[in-house]
TrEMBL record:
Gene3D superfamilies: NAD(P)-binding Rossmann-like Domain (3.40.50.720). It comes from Apophysomyces ossiformis. It comes from the Eukaryota. Belongs to the short-chain dehydrogenases/reductases (SDR) family. The keyword Lyase does not apply. SUPFAM superfamilies: NAD(P)-binding Rossmann-fold domains. Keywords: Oxidoreductase. GO terms for molecular function: oxidoreductase activity, acting on the CH-OH group of donors, NAD or NADP as acceptor. Transmembrane segments: none annotated. InterPro entries: NAD(P)-bd_dom_sf, SDR_fam. This is NAD(P)-binding protein.
Amino acid sequence: MAENEIDERCDDDVFQIQPSGYSYDSKKEILAARRVERLDAIRQTIATKYPQVAIHVVALDVRHKQQIDQVVSELPESYKHIDVLVNNAGMVLGLDHLVDVNEEEFDTMFATNVKGLVFLTQAILPGMKARQTGHIINIGSVAGKQSYPGGSIYCATKHAVDAITKALTYELVDTPIRVSQICPGLVDTEFSTVRFRGDKEKADNVYKGIQPLVGQDIGNEN
């Protein structure tokens, strides 16, 4: 197993794919997001628990292909051979019915949830194919399997992730490169806070009376 991993995420971080029991020997990890200060906190947590892991943090907005290409091309030499790509950027805006969805929110959700995943995969996959090794993990959602009222555009983006994952699996079937998708249900993160534009009361009501998942439920293999 080679050693470099890139974990790409948006501002409303869900979790970090770090299964318990995973070997960190000589491992390197790249953390990318718009808010670098959030990643610095994650880096400190990893460094405390796994001091042998080398971590590179980089600012990245996955909505912009040119920025992705630049970040990947300018990675330090020891981080260029990326073996595991976690496409984890995802967000939702509002709870409007389709007839009321505005164009800006439509574009933002598709740019983040779909185009970002495609652009980053396009930047990383050629290297995996050249080395004949790699694993791409796309973070989907149960919303990509079952739509709901008020979530038409978000559900559409996650249906797109599902379709892209399946197509990419077929496209790479004759290679050693693996493609996986994780489809969580309701997870207690900043996701709902972003959806309701910072209204914490509305966000908290989403989880009222239920037991949502937390990031560790998904990131741990046990």
